Amino acid sequence: MLAVACDPVRVHAVDTASSLDDEVLSDSRVRSVIADLDEPLPFPDATLDRVISLNVAEHLADPSGHLVECHRVLKPGGLLVLAHSDWDTALFASENDALTRTLVNRFVSTVPTFAVRADGFMGRKLLGLAIASPFEVVTVDTWADCHRRFEQDSVGWKVAMGVLAAVRDDPQLTAQATRWVEALVGMAAQGRFLFTVTDVAIVLRRPESDEHPAAG
Questions:
Q1: Quick check: 200 and 84 in contact, CB under 8 A?
Q2: Other C-beta atoms lying within 10 Å of the C-beta of residue 200
Q3: Which residue in 34, 149, 151, 188 could disulfide with 193, CB within 3.0 to 4.6 Å?
């Protein structure tokens, strides 16, 4: 956003904790805002031009209420980009398809230690949330986010580490998952590693004049 901005902008980076790079935090256009996202957004009514909600909805107690809050803080005609990965679509090229399916299922159904709640099927639920919201739907897009690197901090690596964390209470499955990750490392060394996940992005517009007030 900062790279393509032509006019003066102010970017409010809202999260439960700041994970912004130092170079972004030092940009005078960026303001880091720490907030409880289950509470009302810390902005007055109709003050923002754009809102981007990325991989947020699955962690909220009331995803529908989140859209109502985004509607409240946007100016009439303002846009919300509502985007989420659908983790149940995680695809790993591997040597053991059945084990991979078992591990992905466990990953999707397990709430990670850093979160209070999670929903691995949230990507496919976005459109239903959007249609039930006070917004107008502008566009709906999906794509497979493809990655061939399998090294620390790559997306595939992070999901694989999530798999290991999800099976830690099952010693037998933990041993299988550890060998599975080792096999992925070997495949990556041979150039055969592939990871994809389906991402969903919906652009919504707050109508210029709302026919009825948003209900929370």
A1: yes
A2: 20
A3: 188
Domain layout of the chain by residue ranges: 35-205
Task: Answer yes or no: CATH 3.40.50.150 is held by domain 35-205.
Answer: yes
Q: Could you list the pLDDT tens digit for every one of the 216 residues in the chain?
A: 888 877 788 999 898 887 777 788 888 888 989 999 999 999 999 999 999 999 999 999 999 999 999 999 999 999 999 999 999 999 999 999 999 999 999 999 999 888 889 999 999 999 999 999 999 999 999 999 999 999 998 999 999 999 999 999 999 999 999 999 999 999 999 999 999 999 999 999 999 987 644 444
CB 73 within 8 A of CB 44: yes
CA–CA separation, 14 and 106 (whole Å): 30
Residue 84, classified by CB atoms within 10 Å of its CB into exposed (0-12), middle (13-18) or buried (19+), is: buried
Within 8 A by CB and 6+ apart from 99, the residues are 176, 180
Q: And the tokens for 87?
A: 């983790």
